[in-house]
Amino acid sequence: MDYSTNDSKSTSKKKVVAVVGGGLVGNLNACYFAKRGFQVEVFESREDIRQAKIVKGRSINLVLSHRGRQALKHVGMEDTIISKGIPMHSRMIHALNGTQSPIPYGKKGQYILSIDRANLNKELLSAAETYPNINLNFAHKLLNWSTETGAMTFHLFVEEIQADLIVGCDGAFSAIRKQFLRQSRFNYSQTYIPHGYLEITMPPINGEFAMKPDYLHIWPRNTFMMIALPNLDKTFNCTLFMPFEEFEKVTTGDKVIEFFQKYFPDAIPLIGAEALKRDFFRLPAQAMVSVKCSSYHFGDKCVLMGDAAHAMVPFYGQGMNAGFEDCLVLNEIMDQLNEDFSAVLPEYTRVRVPDGQAIADLAMYNYVEMREHVNSKWFLFRKYVDNF
Ligand code: FAD
Asked: Where in this chain does the record put each FAD-binding domain (predicted)?
């Protein structure tokens, strides 16, 4: 199917943009392009998550901060999303002896928001659906695309699809990016860190939050760390970050309790010993990868955004926020350069690569700092705390 206008200078007929990946950044991006009047085709490998009983994804909740909010605001979504978020004005530090000390994020009144990832994705899909010029194509897993013709091929679909612009929003393991790797002078690196993470739910107690809800709770413990973010259903989502080799030592329910007794004793009665044992083994610990690449574009045909361009370790809570900001930045360049993709895409690379790489570096730098200063307790404490 040829959606393209076959005319790179065409202004009479609106061009067709194919957004590959209908995740957080892809759906927001679709709204941006649709708002400009483009015909937008979103191709998402999963089924519609609004119909799914179980939504697989990375963290259950996310921190939304200023740069992400600015990007949502531009398409009129900021208020809807923040109304379903929980403001966190401070971190709450849990010492080993159970004492808790708050450290504010900024001045009085400043806060970041705890947001449910699945709900955010659903809201973005529903927002995209309100534009008559957006088509959502679920169960469309991109297999490949041709840098010569721009034709895209999808799993289980024989027909090739063409568009005027391909926007790769298909995440850290982007299939769109694979074609970039074959191009001369395309730089690429990916780094897995030795830490993994797993998530544990802290249920409500007597229908109320088990801890104070307007905080991002942090348990800094040398090379380990646990954080907890509140959810609207009065649960907390706890994320334990720890080297894989340490996860491998915790092999039984009894060892889980022993480990928590040693490092996070105050969390055991709040989570519940049985729930703790169950959640710890629900999924294997997940890996974290950092991706850096340059350029972000290929000719006037394709551009990478979000994690496809700059996946980062989560120690700054900025991956999604930076991906949302990508949409805002590209949009500004579209204004400046009259939507001429042959000028817009190189300019986007010029402006955005240094920022994308800087934020990925900062996230990694803080992770490395944490590891290298394990013997300096005060330094480590500050590092853990400052990152979140
Ligand atoms: P993704 O969310 O990965 O979406 C990619 C989409 O593309 C998916 O829907 C996928 O199904 C689809 N797809 C993949 N391959 C194909 C294909 N071949 N064809 C079609 N579709 C495809 N960021 C923050 O800002 N704040 C936080 O607090 C935060 N916490 C985090 C905690 C953890 C533990 C982790 C791991 C990450 C965290 N992040 C956070 C980062 C954030 O999750 C990512 O930056 C964000 O999800 C990137 O969005 P994306 O749309 O670019 O990619």
From this structure: 17-361
